[in-house]
């Protein structure tokens, strides 16, 4: 193999040096081997039973008997793969059933699925807008949205996080007659706060912009029955492009968009991740379909998640932690610099609380944090224990008194 001495080599070395340095100090917490998911609230990590505070399985649906059964039956019926792209190799009944279920759950006419949430954002944004158009994105939107905007070739405008005045200024900047798409997360994945949805809808309507909302962290989380942000604000039918993932509350893998029939028909014939990439495996499609049904059949899960989130956020605030503006199950515990975040994580993990640090460049320098999540699988006493461990760790490091 050839030896290189160039910018690619430097990049590879720089990242490897950072990882090696953290590993030497026992401060590398990523990619840890999990051998058992114990009902969602606990996991077996490196042979240690730990409380799980880094999961997106918000309603504790991983391993749910109805969902597992649906997946197993799909394997029996269809096998494990999809033998190619749906447009050419044929669309399985389970895919159509899943898309109908999603459309109904999201109060939309139709839906389309892709093999991941990441691919969904990339392909949908870059199919809808292109050169000569405008795409406007919140500064804290998920990387998959940012990548979709950049890939599209449209003029990419960003606005200050959750600042609707800044969004309006951006909309005013755009020449009239241009096609424009506004994209935002419903719940922000690093901060847990909720987008100023009513104002955003009003601005999009006033300025004639399409509205795309990524509901990765709001399905199962927001709204009385967990249907997401439109239900939360009682504003049905206000999002043009309802994007979501099947990998968080829904314990499967994949992504989707729900919307008007014409939009979905267009995406089915124009979006490259649909036309040039294989469909979801049948077991994952069946699991996802069953999970949407379980959310509606077991409404106590959404209620319990709300109670648990409230207990976790208010408890950490009482301990003196800065949790930014979170209102949801994603709870940032601000530590400041990266080393403090690593030290708090290390102390918490030594006491069997599995939380993860998020450091720059994923978040701005100085805002390194634990990004802790709580789910409907946790019991109140478990949350109390996790909070006491985080508090002791914070105290030891001088973050709180
Ligand atoms: C807001 C948001 N959108 C999209 C994605 C990508 O979803 P997936 O993991 O299904 O690719 C994520 C994943 O973390 C996310 O947080």
Q: What is the overall shape?
A: globular
Please count the beta strands (DSSP E, at least 2 residues each): 14
Distance N terminus to C terminus?
Answer: 56 Å
The assigned structural class equals: alpha/beta
Descriptive account of the structure:
The protein has 401 residues and is α/β, with parallel strands linked by helices. It contains 15 helices and 14 strands. The longest helix has 19 residues. The structure holds pyridoxal-5'-phosphate (PLP).
List keywords for this structure.
401 residues; alpha/beta; four-stranded mixed beta sheet; 17% strand; binds pyridoxal-5'-phosphate
Précis, in short:
With 401 residues, the protein is an alpha/beta fold. The chain is 44% helix and 17% strand. The structure holds pyridoxal-5'-phosphate.
Fold topology:
Blueprint: H1 7-24, E1 34-38, E2 42-45, E3 48-52, H2 65-78, H3 86-89, H4 93-105, E4 110-114, H5 117-128, E5 134-138, H6 143-152, E6 155-159, H7 164-173, E7 180-185, H8 197-207, E8 210-214, H9 229-232, E9 241-245, E10 255-259, H10 261-270, H11 272-275, H12 282-297, H13 300-318, E11 330-336, H14 338-350, E12 353-354, E13 357-358, E14 368-373, H15 380-396
Parallel strand pairs: 3-12, 5-6, 5-7, 7-8, 8-9
Antiparallel strand pairs: 1-2, 2-3, 4-10, 9-10, 11-14, 13-14
Bound molecules: pyridoxal-5'-phosphate.
């Amino acid at each position: 193999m050839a030896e290189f001495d160039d910018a690619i080599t430097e990049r590879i070395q720089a990242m490897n040096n950072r990882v090696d340095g953290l590993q030497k100090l026992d401060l590398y917490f990523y990619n840890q081997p999990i051998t058992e998911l114990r009902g969602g609230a606990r996991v077996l990590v490196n042979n240690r039973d730990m409380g799980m505070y880094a999961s997106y399985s918000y309603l504790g649906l991983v391993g749910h008997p109805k969902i597992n059964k649906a997946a197993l039956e799909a394997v029996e019926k269809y096998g494990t793969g999809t033998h190619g792209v749906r447009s050419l190799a044929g669309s399985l009944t389970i895919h159509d059933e899943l898309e109908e279920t999603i459309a109904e759950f999201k109060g939309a006419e139709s839906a389309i699925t892709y093999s991941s949430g990441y691919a969904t954002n990339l392909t949908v944004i870059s199919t809808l807008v292109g050169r000569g158009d405008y795409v406007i994105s919140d500064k804290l939107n998920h990387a998959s949205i940012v990548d979709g905007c950049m890939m599209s070739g449209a003029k990419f405008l960003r606005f200050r996080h959750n600042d609707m005045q800044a969004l309006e200024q951006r909309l005013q900047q755009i020449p009239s007659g241009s096609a424009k798409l506004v994209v935002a997360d419903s719940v922000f994945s690093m901060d847990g706060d909720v987008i100023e949805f009513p104002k955003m809808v009003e601005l999009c309507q006033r300025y004639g912009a399409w509205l795309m909302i990524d509901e990765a962290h709001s399905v199962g989380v927001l709204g009385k029955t967990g249907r997401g942000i439109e239900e939360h604000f009682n504003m049905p039918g206000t999002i043009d492009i309802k994007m979501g993932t099947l990998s968080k509350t829904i314990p499967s893998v994949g992504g989707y968009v729900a919307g008007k029939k014409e939009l979905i028909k267009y995406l089915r014939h124009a979006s490259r991740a649909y036309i040039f990439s294989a469909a979801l495996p049948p077991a994952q499609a069946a699991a996802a379909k069953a999970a949407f049904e379980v959310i509606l059949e077991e409404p106590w899960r959404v209620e319990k998640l709300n109670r648990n989130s409230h207990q976790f956020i208010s408890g950490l605030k009482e301990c003196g932690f800065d949790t930014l503006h979170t209102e949801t199950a994603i709870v940032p515990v601000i530590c400041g610099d990266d080393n403090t975040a690593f030290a708090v994580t290390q102390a918490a993990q030594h006491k069997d609380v599995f939380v993860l640090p998020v450091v720059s460049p994923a978040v701005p320098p100085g805002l390194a944090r634990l990004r802790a999540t709580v789910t409907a699988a946790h019991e109140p006493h478990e949350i109390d224990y996790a909070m006491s461990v985080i508090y002791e760790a914070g105290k030891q490091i001088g973050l709180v008194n």
